[in-house]
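Support request, please re-run this one:
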Amino acid sequence: MKSKSITIDGLAGMVQKEFTEINQQLKKLDKNDQVILKKLEGIVYRYEFDELQTRVKDLENLLAVGNKRR
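Re-run finished. Output below.
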């Protein structure tokens, strides 16, 4: 079987083609990341929710005690 010779210019062309493809894929991933981030906008982490829930319960208890005194 005869081996195929590759020139420097041919190799440079192949490398450039692969970099172009990689850049296109990275652009697609970046676009997908932006879509995901947009969908997650306004979503609260669980620990933030739990902390807020505790604070609200504390305020409710405080107000309930204040209302019983009146």
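The radius of gyration is 30 Å. The first helix runs from residue 8 to 40.
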